[in-house]
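User: Assemble these into one structure.

Assistant: Restating your components, then the assembled model:
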Amino acid sequence: DIVMTQSPLSLPVTPGEPASISCRSSQSLLYSNGYNYLYWYLQKPGQSPQLLIYLGSNRASGVPDRFSGSGSGTDFTLKISRVEAEDVGLYYCMQALQRLTFGQGTRLEIK
Amino acid sequence: EVQLVESGGGLVQPGGSLRLSCAASGFIFSDHWMSWVRQAPGKGLEWVANIKEDGSVKDYLDSVRDRFTISRDNAKNSVYLHMNSLRTEDSAMYYCVSQTMVVSWGRGTLVTVSS
């Protein structure tokens, strides 16, 4: 299985400041169609994961433009340009190239 | 808009059985793989099983192989997870996931295995 490794696992951020989460995969997620099968989700307490970014860099419908995804192959990054209080929660990266596998999760908290 | 609605969870004794269902809408169901993913309380996300568009290929997490069976009915736009010989460690929220380009999730159904 493809192993997904996130860092950091804990991310305290001051509101209005930027934040960045890294996700690395043990194999390339770049498929022959040119897409990276890497997804970013935010899970808030008591809720199912909500999609933020799909195929590496595409913002999902309704997601604020302060969220952006980048990267290709095995290295990916989720950036929040200016953190807001509502961004608190657990962030997961997931690969969908093979059996779905997930990063350990990064807990974003407000300082 | 893609919608996935899970049902069938509940409280069951160790060794018991449950059948989870997932009703899908908003996309061409028969064109996409489907998966079940679970999350134990306070834990991370764990893929459980998936099934090919026509049901001809199925794959399972090692710890559930021989106990769980995934199936689908493309005429009913539904996917199922039959769970037998349930163990306490199978207790989790179970999510239905559609493997479209924009991978979508349901809200989950809670399975609790306890005596």
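The mean pLDDT of chain B is 96.
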